[in-house]
Fold these 3 entries.
Entry 1:
Amino acid sequence: MEITSQNHGFSVELASLKNQEVELTHINLNDRTLEGLRHRQLPLFSVQYHPRFPGPHDASYLFDHFLTLMENQKG
């Protein structure tokens, strides 16, 4: 669980993602909006939020995951 700040004026309709290729990874507990997803087959993921206490390590796991995806796609 993460505490995040919201700054979006739009959201993805969860019902539009009834697709087995997409996994919902982050759901806002307050308004049940989608904040993150990943594709099950392709090396891509997305998040839409800001860490509550922005700092050098708050979202480091996301950057680590991104770097791992990039390394796996080399060559």
Entry 2:
Amino acid sequence: MAKREFKYIGHSVARVDGVEKVTGKAKFVGDLAIPGMLHGKILRSTYPHARIRSIDATQAEALPGVVAVLTAADINDLNPIYNGRPVIAMNKVRYVGEPVAAVAALDLATADEALDLIQVDYEELPAVVGIDSAIKKDAPLIHAEKGGNIGTHEKVERGSVDEGFAQSDVIVEDIFTFPMVYHYAMEPHSVIAHYDDTGEITVWSSAQHPFQARGDIAKVFKVPTAKVRMIINYLGGGYGSKSYTKFEPLVVALARKAKQPVRICNSVGESMVTVRRHGARVRVKTGVKNDGTILAREAEIYLDTGGYDDNGPQVTARSATRVIGPYWIPNIRTNAYQVYTNTGSAGSYRAIGAPQVIYAGESQIEMAAAKIGMDPAELRMKNLLKKGQELRPGLKGIDANLNSSLKRLVRASTWKKSIRKKSAAIGMGCAVTNAGATPVSVAMIRMQSDGIANVAAGSTEMGQGVRTTLTQIAAEELTLPMDQFRILGADTKVTPYDSSTGSSRSTTLMGTAVQKAARDLKQQFIKIAAQTMAAKPSKIRVADGALICGEARMTFKEAFERRFGKGSGGEMIGRGEAGPEITGNQLPVFWEVGMGASEVEIDRETGEVKLKKFISVADVGKAIHPDHCVAQEEGAAMQGIGHTFFEQLIYENGQLINPNLVDYRIPTFSDVPEEFHTELVENGDGPGPFGVRGMAEGGILSVAPSVCNAIDRATGVRIKDLPLTPERVWRALRDSQK
């Protein structure tokens, strides 16, 4: 069968939003000016744990230019809790930075001044910071009604780990720790809200999940979802930090009281306490035979979720699965616990719950390989899951060829040649993640008589290039030039439903919906042509925006005229949806594959470790836009470099002491590896359009374990705590010599 040739799919076409962005025409929430808009600021708790005795906003309300001050007293008529957190602190604060009051004023300077005039009387309570402190038997309770500081508990079990360990020749057991880290999207969280006289709520937000935020706002304010309109323009990055609902309900409540639109834009420091990645403590125990067969794995995972749930329950559930790794292990027992602490809440961050546990599990794979004297790549190859095999009970079997990806990594990284060198500073990491989230996406394509096609899709453009990718899919199906398509951000009043933008789902699920919408529209044109040409629809082919049957040819424009009459305009609409049937009603939607190999250079005098080479492999099924795929994979790897080498949010006595980009270091160009390369695997076996498989999270997963494995191979020193600051590495090297 001849290989299909594509005009747009598989080509790195120009971004459809590129000109808008480089010329500054692209509008973010901070750029919008809504008529009558006020400027808002949030007063945040200075205590990690305290009871609020009273709040006096009298002086602030009397300040000229102040229109409204919001406190908990203003939300008594609402359902004030969403995602486990209150709209604004009620009776108690549970972390430094929690919103206690909010001001709407004519300008930011007045709003800032008003914050200083609000008097809050606190009764300080004992603070619990860190996992160890929170799980102590007599630890102060952060949520008294829960009876403890453990929230969600997820357990995965198969076989008998006790029997598996009894049959193992080698058992390795270790505890690893992973830091709290901040996403640092370039645009901090921003929201504009308007609550009009009829009870209609309009929100302009930097939300990744506009339809989920709409649902939360409707529940909080006790209105039908039809009364809530979310409008999303561009996002300046997300990485999960803008998933779910953040402080949109607070801004709506403030706008309701002010009776005018209000905008609140976080600073970087404020966003740092709005959401972060979960810190973790992971105990892993793995049993193997001398021939490299993995027989058992046990894991105990504690995730620091901060003061409130946010997406912590889902993160916890995913971690209990993802710690198993991409291997067939007959005996597994994993327990994951969500732990409340008096710190800013943790939520979604690229590959939720995975970097923490894959760092631990993949470090241990190489430790076990060293103990039995086996090449760690061979040990992995021996145990990789085969297509259809079940990673954990209840989930869809593996749908990717893991063997081919690992072979690609071994070849691209020159692993076999490098490993022959004694003490070669090389390491590897492999992972799969259950991706795709909820499989519900709907799209429409509305074509006008002038040939312009408007794609209505709820996926949020936050830099990943989804508008371009969806346009490529539509253009390929309809055989029209890409410049005839228009695609905007979500507006829940007119845009069809999409469950979320995250979990690597957009190209696979929304891409499927757009492809189906394009095919629906195409069939409508074929029907018109078949009637006109007196031919069977199966005999009509579509090429270059025309309908062809033998020698007869009809353009889309002529088909419009045939249906609606000359000069009468008209509109044709194609509709498509992706639902649970895309995967046979089984989750996950697909398994995302992330593999990588590192080579490092270690300065034993200073402890500085430099990543010289990083090779990653991403199984994308089909690369719709190859350059975007590589950029996503390498962008993810750079975030992995951050939490591996230096990123960490540091709390002392409940206070975040590095809430800015001076004290909190993120990767820069000087941290880019000298050799930085991504291999794209295209087997065409994904569930999405043209065989695509979602990607963009896998690249973050293998950096930390592969770097730590490289350090161990070169020095014999195993470091089990991140980040790898020079001091930590230097101390580990020094202690190993004692």
Entry 3:
Amino acid sequence: METDPLDRPILSHIHGRLIVLEEDVDVAKAVRAMHSQKAEIIIVTKDIKPVGIVTDSDILDKVVMKGEDSDQILLRSIASSPVISLSANGTVRQALELMRLNAIKHIPVTDNIHILGLVTQEELANAIRTSVLERTFRSYRSIIRYHYKPILGNLGFILQFAGILLLAPAILATTLNETESATGIFLGLTSMFAAGFVLNTYGEKIPLNLKQASILIVSSFVLLSFFGSIPYMYVNPFLEKLDSLSLFVNSFFESASGFTTTGLSMITQPEEVPQSFDFYRSYTQWVGGLSFVYLVMMFFYPERKLVHMRGMIGGGMLRSKQLIITISVIFTVYTTILSTILYSLGNINNIDSVAVIFSTITGGGFVPTSTYVSGENTPQMLVLMVGMIISALPFAFHYAVFSKELKTTKLRPEVLVYIGIILISILIFYFLLNDHAVQSVWLTSTFLTVSASTTSGFQFIDISSISLEIKILLMILMLIGGCAFSTAGGIKVGRLLQIAQKLTKRKIPIDTAIRSISSVSSRYNKSYSSYEGKGGKLRTDKTFRESLLVISLFVLLSFMTGLVISYFAERNFVDSLFESVSALTTTGLSTGITTLNLDLVSKTFLIINMVVGRFEIVAIFYIFFGAIRKI
């Protein structure tokens, strides 16, 4: 137990800035001795026995101020006596008490024979203040040590690995001799490396709890978006004459839209920027959507320590090794196959075909050219739709398809419901679109329905000109989103099935749906598969309430941001709400509001929506409002 500062031994505070002189020494000689030895006090003795004390104040008041001749005044005439001393066994409390009772500021400390040193009131007071401050800040240091150092250490590691990942577009830009793009990307990844090194220096790379994992994931996406905006600021694919603040906000917007796989963009002519820069934009969606920056952490921690991290990045029912295989192998195979097919269909080069598929299978929505997504390119649109649907299916489903270790049985209900939602919505969209003068109604209806329901955000028609009913349908599809534990955004079909199960009191064999309440609630994963056992009802009730909370927050934040955009951008509320929902569900469909002319306030709110929506909103509340975990 820590000792009270007042009860500490006085010996820990003594010093030797004193001299011992006989009482018949004159003041002038005593002053010279004090100066030469840098003493603060004189112990006056008679026959070696202490009889008095002389301080600077005594000399000033009794000699100097009275105009006395210091050569004629002896120490015994100005010394204060008797000598008040303290035993070497005394404490700080006893010393201060003696000073208070005797109205003195200096006390010699003795061993009852010799004077060991001196303590002063000023030094004791400073020591107590320092002790109190140290004790106060020790708790803060402890908080930092046990709560935030692990976050800083892991965050530094993530930034360094992200820098390594970004070498791919940087090398591509160098190979293509696109100097401006290469320089911008290298600046971004170098900054990531440097920031990661600093954070590693002050942090500790150890496993995290739920709250720490939530803070790490959210803060890492903010920092990735920040450093990822450096290439945008350097290349400046926007207006030539742009003030520094607007350039930064626009760049951060585009970077956040990439890493969160939203796809909203103010770059209307991507074909005018360097090809490697287009690749970089889609590459950020591939990295952010498939959470590559977090997978590497799984090589360094035991399985049991990664339950929160795996849940946060969408692992669901997969073990860490299975999730690594799904993302790094299976999705790479998807990318290779689809980009090869797309390239073989023509109208696109090999680099752009890979870039488009990067955006497609992560639900991104960036395109290398403004005219590529078109109703005239039917075969290409079919390939993109396949990629979009892949992005919205659970990681576990993909793994189960290619592996005998896992069955798709528990995943089928959610997947079948999701496919059913898409088919029904296509029919509704078709009938609502019949009154519009569009080319190929079936293709348009199917493509936009898939784009909205997978939260991919590819579009080739002016959404601002379509009917209110179609806009509402698209907003509903975006809010529902894809399946749980996929790259898709939105509320997720699994949550809706979990609510349906609770309301109808029917047992639905959907392990994924039950556990998909929140990717940040993965601390409960161990028990969800057996929710009917002891305490099962309590767990089901909790996930039901959390599901309702997530849905409520999606709707509330959508309306709040919609009102802000409508006010500041001076656009009608429906279009503003559509833009808000699109950002919050990380979709990327736009009614034309997201342009370079959009005000900075609205852009900032859309950025917040993109980052918050990437982790289904509730992750933010788990960080700042612990009480929500107790509902």
